[in-house]
Amino acid sequence: MEDTKEKQPLVEMIGIVKRFPGVVANDEVNFTLMPGEVHALLGENGAGKTTLMNILYGLYRPDRGTIKIMGRPVTINSPSKAIKLGIGMVHQNFRLIPTHTVAENVILNAPNVGFFIDWQKIHEELRQQIAKYGWRISPESRVWQLSAGEKQQVEILKLLYRGSRILIFDEPTSVLTPQESKMLFTTMRKMAEEGKGVVLITHKLDEALSVSDRITVMRKGRVVLVKPTSMTNRDELALAMIGRQEGASLQPQPGPRTDRPVLSVINLFVEGDKEELAVKGASLDVHRGEILGIAGVSGNGQVELAEAIARVRKVKSGKILLDGKDVTSFTPRQMYENGVAYIPPEGARTGVVSELTVLENAILKSYRYSPISNKLLIRWKEAAKLAGMLIERYQVVAPSINAKVKTLSGGNIQRLVLARELLGNMLIKPKLIIAVYPTSGLDIGAAEYV
After folding, report:
1. Nearest C-alpha neighbor of 267 from the set 305, 318, 302
2. Mean predicted lDDT score pLDDT of the chain
């Protein structure tokens, strides 16, 4: 980081308070961002990190507090006002139109584009920015053709095209491969060298320590630590973040392994979304009492294999046996009724219905069965008891069971998905758990618990 002693902060947030029904998301929070620094905003799920930055970006208005941009008090009541002030934000879930090109996405709602669009000029400007940061995307490419890392580059390109000097990244590596994450961190450092201010919202200690100049730790809506990165360490950050050292929780004991496999996959062939073979002749056995890990670079058939076993994707050929019974033609509902729990990738997108409440999402799979249902009607009192138990056991931070899931943080949505799949029915106990990136979006404490 450049010497910032004589420099004016890009951002000062003073005494910020934000309340939601039943929750104080930000409690007298102070935060500063200097030019030329990467500032990591670290905390566990539901600590208030994203809420604070959503206030800076104009998505929420604070109940109390002051925001200064370059020393001037401002009121930011919308993202468009934030953009005019030079603030840009890359969200966890990309906000792009897949059928449009990179250039079309970048200029959408951009100022000073004009009625008659000079595509040649825009493409040339974008190519210069792309080359500057060492990216390989093309302005003419359709977004649906891009990898997750490349889509994120398009989001960053949107901010750069609008002249953003304050850049906020919300859990940016949650969908990236290690190689893509490394490239992103290189981009962040280059932006800081140019005098921009970068905020990295994360719950990953290694990320905060490797790329940032300064770290602010939030816990339960309050700032509990602010330090230069060079003057702190992993143990101190973990203690501030979750109140204990990593690995201090109770270590689970493995169950007895059985000789007969609970799952057998025999010579399985599965097609991907583009009708290409994603899984080619896979065979494996999983026994009770063991965890079978499937490793590999993202995009090499792991997700398609899991989806096929859970029966949410068609099998081209081969067999799937559950306790020796052929279930290759089963529906997802039949798999659930036979004791298969499925934790999908991107739980916030594919594991919940965002417009439904926490309560409704908690019973998405169990509403047909006793004690939640009497086969004609849902027993809402029983459903509320179940939802309350799931929230308590998995420490889901939510205003109430009647809050819409879309108001939860990504990490808390993942906790809810885990709770529903593993504990969501008192009568159907899972004997096989298919978990695809189950700790995605979770802080270190929750990941240890999983």
Report:
1. 318
2. 88
Find the domain containing 215 and state its range: 11-242
Around Cβ 139, how many Cβ atoms within 10 Å? 21
Q: How far apart are CA 306 and CA 342, in angstroms?
A: 9
- Residues of the chain with pLDDT > 90, as a percent, come to 57
- Nearest 5°: CA angle at 396, between 367 and 445? 130
Interval 45-68 mean pLDDT: 93
- In the block, tokens 């309340």 appear at 19
Helix, strand or coil for residue 189? helix
HEC assignment per residue over 392-431: HHHCCCCCCCCCEHHHCCHHHHHHHHHHHHHHCCCCCCCC
Q: Is the pLDDT assigned to residue 119 strictly greater than 50? A: yes
- Measured at the CA of 196, the angle between CA 195 and CA 199, to 5 degrees, comes to 135
Of 197-206, 277-286, 309-318, 400-409, least confident by mean pLDDT is 400-409
Range 95-101, long-range pairs (CB < 8 A, 24+ positions):
95/155, 96/143, 96/151, 96/154, 96/155, 97/143, 98/142, 98/143, 98/144, 99/142, 99/143, 99/144, 100/142, 100/143, 101/139, 101/140, 101/141, 101/142, 101/143
Q: What letter would DSSP give residue 351?
A: I
Q: What percent of the chain has pLDDT over 70?
A: 91
Query: For 51-79, b where at least 16 C-beta lie within 10 A, e where not — what string?
Result: bbbbbbbbbbebeebebbbeeeebebeeb
Looking at the structure, tell me whether residues 426 and 284 fall in a common domain. Answer: yes
Residue range 261-290: mean pLDDT, rounded: 92
Task: Please state the domain count of the chain.
Answer: 2
Collapse the DSSP code of 305 into the 3-class scheme (helix H, G, I; strand E, B; otherwise coil) and give the result: helix
CA-closest candidate to residue 306, choices 258, 350, 364 = 350
User: Any bridge partners for residue 432, and if so which?
Assistant: 340
C-beta separation of 399 from 40 below 8 A = no
> Does 41 map to a domain?
yes
3 within a domain of the structure (yes/no): no
CB 334 within 8 A of CB 325: no
286 lies in the same domain as 189: no
In the chain, the amino acid numbered 277 is L
pTM assigned to the model: 0.71
325-336: per-residue pLDDT in tens? 999 999 999 999
CA–CA separation, 232 vs 215, rounded Å?
A: 9
What is the C-alpha to C-alpha distance for residues 85 and 184, in angstroms, rounded to an integer? 24
Are 216 and 292 contained in the same domain? no
In a domain, 2, yes or no: no
Burial class of residue 329 in the structure, from the number of CB atoms within 10 Å of its CB (0-12 exposed, 13-18 middle, 19+ buried):
exposed
Using CA atoms, how far apart are residues 51 and 73, in angstroms rounded to an integer? 20
